[in-house]
Amino acid sequence: MSASVTATSASVTASSASVMAADAAACSSRSFEVQLLAGRVEACAEQVDAVQGRLGQLQLMDWQSPAGLAYRSSLRVQAVALCRAGEGVLAAALALRRHSVRVAESALTAAGGY
Description:
The chain is mainly α. Helix content is 91%, strand content 0%. The protein has two helices and no strands. The chain has helices spanning 2-60, 66-110. The longest helix is centred in the first third of the chain and has 59 residues, at 2-60.
């Protein structure tokens, strides 16, 4: 009876180690996916910066007419809003980078590491 208990215990331990390794691999994969998402969000932030640059160029144009001056004023308001949105996008990218680290750390924990 002792041999069968030992064999069962070894089987459960091996199965448990296999599950932990699978969990670690899944967490590692999720961490990579989160990093990829962070990269896409950072690319969006770069696009926001590019649009801000183009808005800045439009604002620098010599607007003479009242309609042109109103347009420039509208561009200024939009540029401020876009700046805030860009800051939010960058904050989201940073949060995703931090989260990917935590997901990777959970992979180490799942694998039995510290």
